[in-house]
Amino acid sequence: MKSADIKALEGSVQYLKSIGPKRAAAFSKIGIRTIRDLLFYFPRKHLDRSATVNSSKAYQLVLNGFDGELTVIAKVYSTELKRMGRREMFIVSFRDESGFFDCIWFQGAQYISKIFTEGDIYAISSKPVVSKYDNLQFIHPDFDKISQDESERFLHTGGIIPFYTVPKELRATSIGDFSLRKIIGGAAETYADYLEETIPDDILLRHQLIGIKDAVKNFHYPRSFTELERAVKRFKFEELFYLELLVAIRKNSFRKKFRGEPKTVQTGLVKDFLKTLPYELTKAQLRVLHEIRKDLESEFPMNRLLQGDVGSGKTIVSVIAMLIAADNGYQSALMAPTEILADQHAKNISKMMTLLKEKSGRQIKVSLLLGGQRKSARDKTLSGIETRDADIIIGTHALFEEDVSFGNLGLIVVDEQHRFGVAQRARLQEKGINPDVLIMSATPIPRTLTMTVYGDLDTSVIDEMPGSRIPVKTYLRSDDKLPDIYSFIIKKAGEGDQSFIVYPLVEESEKLQLKAAETLYDQLRKTYLQKIRVGLIHGRMTWQEKEEIMLLFHAKKFDVLVSTTVIEVGIDIQTANIIVINDAHRFGLSQLHQLRGRVGRGSRQAYCILVTDRQYMKAAQKINIDNEFISTAQLEKFKASVRLSTMVKHINGFNIAEKDLKLRGPGDIFGIKQSGFPELRFADLATDTEVVIAARDAAFGIIEKDPSLNFPSSQLIKKNLSVHYSENLKYASIA
What we know:
Layout: H1 3-10, H2 14-17, H3 21-29, H4 35-39, E1 45-48, H5 55-63, E2 70-84, E3 87-96, E4 99-105, H6 109-113, E5 121-126, E6 128-130, E7 136-139, E8 142-145, E9 160-163, H7 168-171, H8 177-191, H9 201-206, H10 212-220, H11 225-257, H12 269-276, H13 283-297, E10 303-308, H14 314-327, E11 331-335, H15 339-360, E12 366-369, H16 375-386, E13 392-395, E14 409-414, H17 422-429, E15 436-441, H18 447-451, E16 458-462, E17 473-478, H19 482-494, E18 498-502, H20 517-526, E19 534-537, H21 543-554, E20 560-563, E21 576-581, H22 589-596, E22 607-612, H23 614-622, H24 632-637, H25 639-649, H26 653-664, H27 666-670, H28 689-705, H29 715-724, H30 726-729
Parallel strand pairs: 4-7, 10-15, 10-16, 11-13, 11-14, 12-13, 14-15, 17-22, 18-20, 18-21, 19-20, 21-22
Antiparallel strand pairs: 1-9, 2-3, 2-5, 3-4, 5-8, 6-7
Helix pairs in contact: 10-11, 11-28, 12-15, 13-14, 23-25, 25-26
């Protein structure tokens, strides 16, 4: 191979230019600029066309119910271009030693008609059918012309054939399945042997992985499904291995570069606080507190993820951590994703601190910082933060704005952490000198994600609910049952229960026929709910307006609160025991689970009623969500119904998170694109647990022994990280 060709493999586009400047430009538009890029443009699926039979055998197989693809080798007997109304069709009659069959094209008939000549021999592949006239047919088959050159390789028939995604940019230059297979097949045949290995030999051997050259060839044109599976396994491992390297580098960077200030329990402040609580902490809360306390006492900054289902008591745990920080003279910042949640945290924690002062005589001051505050109130809050007059500062994104200056920030608590990007968390961390960080998630995270996306964090799990909690009963109902639901709400209002009625929009939308909060609020007050008190809250209100409505609802001035998803996170009303979610099929699983968590926080039975169209309800009642063999196609077709069925069947957030991961993938759930990680193309975090564990062990083992990747054995890894993951490495110092 010439040196120019070796250069072309990584750097130039000589091969792509050879297929024409317009086509090369089209490839460039979709991100393919080098031969390596082209070789890594992998198929989305493979079809098995390796079964080669004669036409008679194909006919019998179809009659016996065969539903796969076959390859038949035959000679062109005749051709005919026919017009049917405004459309043309092209028919080629083929003959082999056992009989005749037809191939029919309805699209591109004129183009196809110029290809076939009587007497030529072709391999034909497709799904065979028997027509109403009892003859064998192949509709829009793929084909390879058989020439005298026995070394010629079939690209479209007679084996396991790749099918690629063909973007519109390629189709615009007449690149379809045939052309793409020819272009990529040629590149694989000519250049695959010159690819440089990206995984060290000892790791390949230890994990029984094939080399990159064989993997690329077997991914594009495998001779068997065993070879294809080995190629897939190698590429799954490779991308997970480099992802886990990034995770390990992050974790090591955080540990080595930063030194924290140990924070120990100095006084009886925490003991006094525990005495003010009207309940005892669960065993899970106590276990998690022990883990957090150990982190705070360490010379390294805490970098911990606290997981716990809705209502499991994460906030109390974080308050105790903030009290330990205050006991050591440090400020704490609690960052919440919405103003309404931040306001509620401030009110609840302020009440706790008032009780604590009565018990201990020690005053812990709480401040609230929001973007929508009046300037005078904001200036006063900013001054208190800078002069250390505030011990616990609660706010939203406003906490990391430039004009916020902390006097001595020692602990950061991030609530509903997946709503914040990694860069946003970093900006808040910069407000202190290596502060401890505790990030909380009420959306439980599946095991594979805690090993990848959050693998740089130490993890604590509150896996126990308070004993007083009665599980919420969840029901699925169709729209025509709404009058009965309203009667149920009125009855329960007479017993002292309050209700949420949630709608997905604020105003009517012409494009989406969804119920709208404002419109339905007016209707309900005048009709079904005219005898009880109804309030309205939505995201377009100012923070002060929302605060006023929530105070009135908390004071039981309303029996029913009509709302959008503004109440999704953290609203804690003890007597709210009914939530009705309209157009429930429009909501994601984590949203539905969070909304359900708004009720059942007291000692009475609570109810979650999911209202949907009858078609979704019927499908949800039929589908078995716990069937391990439910196909991807079924999941895609019935996603909304699967979500609804999951909500009815499961109350445990971890079970729901696993279903959500399978339905949506990790990127959609937890914002991997925000977190500095590469997008996964091969691995499925919902199913590839074993590969994740193997890749993690290999990556963390290397970084533990050679954190700077300076050993000779690490140079290959270091090179690939800098060449192919340079953008992701920018986040290596952010946990």
